[in-house]
Amino acid sequence: MIFLRRAGGVLMILVALVAAVVAALAAFFCAAFATALVPVLVAAALVAFFATFFLSCWAGLALFGLQRSQRPAAVAAAVATVVFGAAAGVPLFRPMPRPVGPPPGSDVRFWDLPTGSRIAYSHIPAVGRPRPAPVVFLHGGPGTANDGISPAGRALAADGFDVYAYDQLGSGRSTRLPDIRGYTVARQVADLDAIRRRLGADKIILIGQSWGGELAGHYLAAHPEHVAKAVLSSPGVLWYGASRERASGELWDRLSPRQRERAESLASSPRMSAAQLLAEVNPSAAHALLGDDEADELFRRILDASVSAAQCPGRPPASLPANRPGFYVNQMTIADAQTLPDPRPRLRTVTVPTLVMRGECDYKDWQVTYDYRRTLPGSTLVYVPHAGHAIAMDQPAVYLAVVRAYLLGHRLPLPPYTAATPPT
User: Which residues cross the membrane (predicted)?
Assistant: First the structure.
């Protein structure tokens, strides 16, 4: 009988431990509804752990006749709380490596926009007399800024275009917002229009890659009168309401088992997991726990683990730009885009000449790309063989030839693709 009572007491202690851990986690995340201060969240978790463990031990052990005072339960609760705090705190609060991004080069300048954004940019002036509309490159991501102006941009400058490439808000060397809820599609559109005004241009030419193509689409819906031409290379989802299922998971499905294991280990680290859960409750608390420096570096490592899956098999391996990516602008802007109303009714009235480029091995569903072709009445679709999502990376010569021909009004080196279904 004594043995059974003691065994029952051990079982109750284990039950008390599990209950205390659950209570601590609940208190941690519930407190985030009221505050973004991480010390307060931690204090709430430790108090909940101590109280739950103490009450459970005292009641449970008393039930088995093994305790006649509260003191042993209080001591056990105090010891367990210290051990729990240390075990949870070390992985949760141990800083991760911080990024060592490239310092601003001699060609990097900054715009202080009326939107409040401080935007890093590079500019190559036109050779000879500049054409009326400058070219503005829009990088992908959101948050994966390029290293200044690409070879294609330099070639366009030689053709007489003023060429600009900028780090979008929250990425590269541009502003990081203290309140990450400010990363929205509308803010990016407002920044782009402020840049147009800063350039003194009534019309601009937009060249967007992936998310940059999606951003160009939203700008076209808001300010079509200020776009001379647009080039959308592997554009992102035009409207998530029609493409929510197709928009997620395609790249993940192409990862090798080793790549997937690496990406999963990075994305499921204790600090990242806690930040992602907190973001559902209070994005400011997530940002306070996992700051921009650490989040951006972790984001870079996840991108490094998966970038080759965006290419056609057999292409030379790609590498990420040295410029610093932006984790929170990526997460928050995508979340915001998924809540926006359908822009397609507006875009069906936009007649701006638009080139849509699709690579043979693009991981995005065909309908994501074709949505632009069937929505924009002034659009032309070009299908690029042996190219993945980043056409300029897999087929740089073809990419440049097509873009130059389109902007200069020459015959395209590849025929327009007119079918509603992909080539077989």
Answer: 12-34, 40-66, 73-93
User: According to the 3-state scheme, what is the secondary structure of 188-254?
Assistant: HHHHHHHHHHHHCCCCEEEEEECHHHHHHHHHHHHCHHHEEEEEEECCCCCCHHHHCCCCCCHHHHH
Are the C-beta atoms of residues 40 and 278 closer than 8 Å to each other? no
- Is the pTM higher than 0.70? yes
- Residue 4, pLDDT above cutoff 50: no
Tokens representing 148 are 């200044």
Residue 132's contacts (CB-CB under 8 Å, 6 or more residues apart) are 203, 228
Sequence-distant (6+) residues with CB within 8 A of 2 are none
For residues 51 and 44, the answer to whether their CB atoms sit within 8 Å is no
Q: Which residues pair with 209 in a beta bridge?
A: 233
* Span 261-288, pLDDT tens digits: 887 877 777 888 888 888 888 999 999 9
Of 118, 167, 177, 110, the closest CA to residue 139 belongs to 167
Euclidean distance between CA atoms 172 and 159, whole angstroms? 28
Cα–Cα nearest to 371, from 345, 346, 344, 391: 344
H/E segment holding residue 73:
helix 71-93
Alpha carbon distance, N-terminus to C-terminus of the chain: 76
Pairing mode of beta strands 135-138, 108-112: unpaired
Separation between Cα atoms, residue 346 and residue 230, nearest integer Å: 16
Distance CA 272, CA 127 (A): 47
Distances (CA, A) of 5 to 32, 56, 65, 80, 97: 40, 16, 7, 22, 50
423 token code pair = 């080539």
Task: Tell me the pLDDT band of 10, cut-offs 50, 70 and 90.
Answer: low
108 has which bridge partners?
122
Distance, CA of 386 to CA of 313 (rounded, Å): 9
Which residue carries 């391996």 as its tokens? 317
Name every residue whose Cβ is closer than 8 Å to that of residue 10 and which is 6 or more positions away in sequence. none
H-run or E-run covering 355: strand 354-359
Extract the tokens encoding 40. Answer: 């307060």
Q: How confident is the model at residue 351 (pLDDT cuts 50, 70, 90)?
A: very high
